[in-house]
Amino acid sequence: MKEKKNSGNEGSGVKEEIRQYRDRLLVQQQQIREKGLPVVILVEGWAAAGKGSLINELIYEIDPRLYNVVSPAILPNREERYPFLYPYASAIPENGKFMFYDSGWMEAAVRKYLRRDITKAQYKDRIRSANEFERQLRDGGYIIIKLFLDISCEEQQSRIAELRSNRETEWRVTDEDIWQHREYDLFRKTYEEFMEKTDKYVPWHRLDGEKKKTALRDALELLVKSLDKALEEGRYCGKPFKEEFPLLKMPKLKDVDLSPSMDEEEYRSELKTLQSRLGELHNIIYRKKIPVILCYEGWDAAGKGGNIRRIARPLDPRGFDVMPIASPEPHELARQYLWRFWTRLPRTGHICIFDRTWYGRVMVERLEGFCSEDDWKRAYNEINEFERQLTDWGAVVIKFWIQIDPDTQLERFNDRQNTPEKQWKLTEEDWRNREKWPLYEEAVDEMIEKTSTENAPWYIIESNDKKYARIKALKIVTETLEKACSEQIK
Amino acid sequence: MKEKKNSGNEGSGVKEEIRQYRDRLLVQQQQIREKGLPVVILVEGWAAAGKGSLINELIYEIDPRLYNVVSPAILPNREERYPFLYPYASAIPENGKFMFYDSGWMEAAVRKYLRRDITKAQYKDRIRSANEFERQLRDGGYIIIKLFLDISCEEQQSRIAELRSNRETEWRVTDEDIWQHREYDLFRKTYEEFMEKTDKYVPWHRLDGEKKKTALRDALELLVKSLDKALEEGRYCGKPFKEEFPLLKMPKLKDVDLSPSMDEEEYRSELKTLQSRLGELHNIIYRKKIPVILCYEGWDAAGKGGNIRRIARPLDPRGFDVMPIASPEPHELARQYLWRFWTRLPRTGHICIFDRTWYGRVMVERLEGFCSEDDWKRAYNEINEFERQLTDWGAVVIKFWIQIDPDTQLERFNDRQNTPEKQWKLTEEDWRNREKWPLYEEAVDEMIEKTSTENAPWYIIESNDKKYARIKALKIVTETLEKACSEQIK
């Protein structure tokens, strides 16, 4: 005997409203595309609440070229080797497109916590990260709608029973679903808490999953009204916003003594010892599954490339990557600025060396006007958050500023100009940047002051003498990795 | 007691040669970068033969921004849900860069075969696919160097023993390595056969892994000479090349009767039945892990979008994607033309609907001169091979040509022009393309004639009446999937 409860006979008025909202959405989607607004729709909720069907109804009027649906939760094991937010951050839509998340960061965090795969403290970190992620997207101009599809314990029971009674659908009920149902009260309490704590920047909307038609109507209404608002007000740009991070006291660049140097003999001997040790550490890193992120920034011709090569030399090529970061490509510019770094993160146990980094936001993008003042001023905080999310995950994050003085740069530029096989390294842009040295120095000082956190510190590497610089960087890397390897891994 | 065998004391002459080749490579890499030549270096060989160390030595003089190393073999389980060549095809370098494969398609094929994960017939298909892959890259201007690092059974034994005797290195010896060593003779025979059968387009080079220094010297010599040759001769472009594919007899477009239509009532009823069946089939597809690839090509305003939406409607959004294919982005143009499709393939059990496809090569790219005549003439064969690799994998591949006549197109263009919310769909380019109708028709006829294979057939969908077209496409999809679901899956 089947009760008639999901029939959707909530009156023809609802049906008419749905039709009207759909018609509106049909027009809005093109305006969203034209104005290049990105839209994130997160659909969370109980197992068997009908998340998939709801999404299917929501996308009905949207042109298939304008939307995508991801189910990060069903990517098996992938997220395990990446930070908590990785599956969500790497799937954000580009400007002018809709992305539907069929369950997302709430479900992932709650499930891991209730399974005791993560501690209470780690769970709190994830709630904090979720808030940061939502705020960063919002401030970057993303339209975000968060839905929670709710059903009662009894309703869930009957739906699960129905799915299991049919050979064609029984596979849809997973052990995880059964577990959730058994622990319904615990899950409800945890969901409620999570939603309460993440209502701060982007509000939650609860939908009654037992009434299919009205739930759809409500979701469409929310979507249509949010889009109308965004279309009317234009792209939102968040104001700078400061959180307290434990900052290290750093010197100004002008106060850095660039005289240290190293003779050839000492260099050879140190290089050999340190590289050999780094090779051993790479093995341990790999086995202990510690992710390592090395960031290189510095003046043109400061010696980044050669420094990176000395680090890379003893590493097993299967376990590291050098990521050269150039100007963003069109598909990268069409997304929040950290996206191209999220998608380049190493797996656990791997080392990624970034040759230039996300700090471009507060240097070249700031100085060349590639982003607004609010954008780059907000970025210090956003970057600190991003790096804390990386170290929460267990990553070792080391940031090098390779420092030289203007005279040394000029010498090296001239050398490049006069050596045929080095000429490619020197561009017109390098000369133009050189003229802006004081402006860059100011930006770099501010960057180092505001983003040298305890968990992801900056190291200024004196590189007038390249040999000295290489040994110093190698020492910092090996010492930091020694420490990370000897600590108990979370 | 450790024997002195890998000491590399093969004379200082070798050392000097290595130095000279490295110096040459230092210069060459910049020329390779400037000329935008992509370089693939495949390093295959025995476990413990020193593949990683060899790669490490080879990259020593290469700027980290210009190379990458991939170990497709260690990507756990990933390849299992994708076609055989997926890990290699999706990792090809962009123009001007080097990609090192730390073991690749030979190791993967041989191992699966000896493990009996694949049949003899499937193994033969993989050998054929490997040849196709290498030829396609070569013809597309890639410089490819294939190395096999050889060691004897005794040498392997002593190296494995040494690795296992040290706590720091014992984890490096996997069960797979032990198995390979136990079956050394069988592996040798199989490697030799594989190399013999894949020496056709890109030759293999054997290196003596027991002599580290000379092996490195030989590898460097090969690399340097290949690069010199390529730099002198310029980018290679392969000639068209015809293999025999079982082609279906297809009509010319002008002979297609476009009069079929369907009344609203029949349409509604058929739509409901077919969509409901498709929804059920999607469940089975998902459970049986059958990958499905639907390709849409057709005239502007032929009704592709609406047709796709009727297919997508009953599908579980978690299990399908619509991939709109626009003009290639810079990072896509910098790689072989099929790369952007390789990287968009669905996982097993998923459906991917391509809204425009790789056939752009023989339509727009041909007609607009975006590739050379040899390029598009070669593409028929290359595309047939690509699609056969997909169906070898178990994929269902269905290709739709959505056909209308010029009058219908004009009507729809005018309708779009006069309807505000449809105007965005009509561009200047659409009008320009319309003027080239006869040229396009000729290209489409040739395309359909040359690429309608038994395994990946074209279906011409008469779309003067959109309702008729939608039902016809739905019927073809459901019937094909019915058949695929009822067959025994490989």
Describe this structure in words.
2 copies of one chain form a homodimer. Chain A has 490 residues and is of the alpha/beta class. The first copy, chain A, folds into 2 domains: 12-233, P-loop containing nucleotide triphosphate hydrolases (Rossmann fold, 3-Layer(aba) Sandwich), CATH 3.40.50.300; 253-486, P-loop containing nucleotide triphosphate hydrolases (Rossmann fold, 3-Layer(aba) Sandwich). In chain A, 50% of the residues lie in helices and 12% in strands. Chain A has 19 helices and 10 strands. In chain A, the strands form 2 sheets. Chain A has a 5-stranded parallel β-sheet with strand order 2-3-1-4-5, sandwiched between helices. In chain A, helix 5 (120-139) runs antiparallel to helix 15 (373-392) and helix 11 packs across helix 19. Chain A is globular. In chain A, 41% of the residues are buried. The model of chain A is unreliable at 1-8 (pLDDT under 50).
Biggest sheet of chain A: strands, sense, closure? 5 strands, parallel
Domain count of chain A: 2
**What are the secondary-structure elements of chain A, in order, as H or E?**
HEHEHEHHEHHHEHHEHEHHEHHEHHHEH
Strand order of the largest sheet of chain A: 2-3-1-4-5
Q: What is the CATH superfamily label of the largest domain in chain A?
A: P-loop containing nucleotide triphosphate hydrolases
Roughly how many Å apart are the termini of chain A? 51 Å
List the helices and strands and how they pair.
The structure is a homodimer of 490-residue chains.
Chain A: H1 12-35, E1 39-45, H2 51-58, E2 67-70, H3 86-89, E3 98-102, H4 105-114, H5 120-139, E4 143-150, H6 153-164, H7 175-182, H8 184-197, E5 204-208, H9 212-233, H10 264-288, E6 292-298, H11 304-312, E7 320-324, H12 330-333, H13 339-342, E8 351-355, H14 364-367, H15 373-392, E9 396-403, H16 406-418, H17 428-435, H18 437-451, E10 458-462, H19 466-486
Parallel strand pairs in A: 1-3, 1-4, 2-3, 4-5, 6-8, 6-9, 7-8, 9-10
